[in-house]
Task: structure prediction
Amino acid sequence: MVKSSFGTRHGIAALLAAGGLAVAIQQASANAPAGRYAVGCGTVLDNQTGLVWEQDGTLAANWSTATAHCKGQSMRLPTLTELQTLVDDSSGASPPLIDPAFTAGATIAGNLFYWTSSADAKSPPQIWSVDFDTGNSASDLQSQGYYVRCVR
Result:
């Protein structure tokens, strides 16, 4: 578990090993500080990470189609660590566990799994996904129909 100013993260510890240093990743929250997100024309800028996200995350597709969709927008699928920064697992949050800036009033039905670009090194060719219903991460077959949220 990783504790941040935005809540407690369950599942995979959101730590990066970079040059021998461990860096904790803060989690996004629906109660994010003012100015954390800036909504543009179909995108959301995360002023903390500098990442620009696709606002509409309602496309469901297999991993290959998801990758092609992002490339077609001059974007890419996020890494597992990048996507985890959007999980709002603050106390009392209800699904979907993501800041309202990303939902744009859209209703998402069914599972709330979103693809990442991160392969599961222990179970190739499975790919990691993030479940915005629970905040947990899981790996699954590339043929699954999960949601897509591109980034650049």
Notes: Residues 63-72 form the longest helix (10 residues).
